[in-house]
Design goal:
Helix content: 25-40%
Number of strands: 2
Oligomer: single chain
Strand order of the largest sheet: 1-2
Order of helices and strands: EEHHH
Radius of gyration: 43 Å
Structural class: alpha+beta
Number of helices: 3
Length: 204
């Protein structure tokens, strides 16, 4: 039996396919890739990177540096502040103190940075204590106390190179410099040392 020919008005292909460019759920219709949607937004055209990052909100896009130079300026060097009063200028330094006992020794130090005022106060205090209490051990008498005093003399030259503060301390802390070392009675205790050793010698 022969198959009857198809009716001339019957549509060819899938009868359930969307017709006239219509797409369900608001998706772009076939063939409209790279066109504008119903709200006027441009869809990604073929050949563009869909994962390209756009500049974040509030940020400007990156622009290349101009030819022959950099687009940024170098930051000014940071100036250290005093660890005691936060004043500037300050300088790194270490001030030492030595105490010699009969059967023991003690080493102390204060590390900067210090401004001129605070460094002067600490230097006078620790050097005076070394002159007063650094001689009461044989090893301290021969080695450690003289070396400590020589070190503090070197530190004193660094303190003198520091300029005075142009303004008061931002923290309000002000160290009392006190009298100079030469005007402190404790700085002359070491002169009694020979008399003490002579007294011990003759008492035996």
């Amino acid at each position: 039996m022969a198959t009857p020919p198809p009716h001339p008005n019957t549509p060819q292909g899938n009868p359930f396919a969307p017709q006239g460019g219509y797409a369900p759920n608001g998706a772009p219709a076939y063939g409209s890739y790279g066109t504008q949607d119903a709200y006027g937004a441009q869809n990604s055209a073929y050949g563009q990177n869909p994962y390209a990052q756009n500049p974040a909100y509030g940020q400007t896009p990156h622009t290349p540096a101009p030819a022959g130079g950099y687009a940024y300026q170098a930051a000014p060097p940071l100036t250290p502040a005093c660890r005691i009063c936060a004043a500037q200028p300050a300088r790194d330094m270490t001030i030492r103190q030595h105490t010699g006992l009969l059967v023991a020794m003690r080493f102390s130090k204060m590390e900067g940075p210090f401004c001129r005022s605070c460094a002067t106060a600490i230097h006078r205090e620790m050097t005076t204590k070394t002159l007063a209490g650094g001689w009461w051990s044989p090893v301290s008498l021969i080695a450690f106390t003289p070396l400590t005093l020589l070190w503090n003399v070197y530190v004193r030259t660094k303190i003198r190179k520091l300029p005075q503060q142009a303004m008061q301390s931002p923290t309000g802390i002000v160290m009392d410099q006190g009298k100079p070392i030469a005007q402190r009675p404790l700085a002359y205790v070491f002169l009694l040392l020979p008399l003490l050793w002579l007294a011990v010698y003759f008492s035996n």
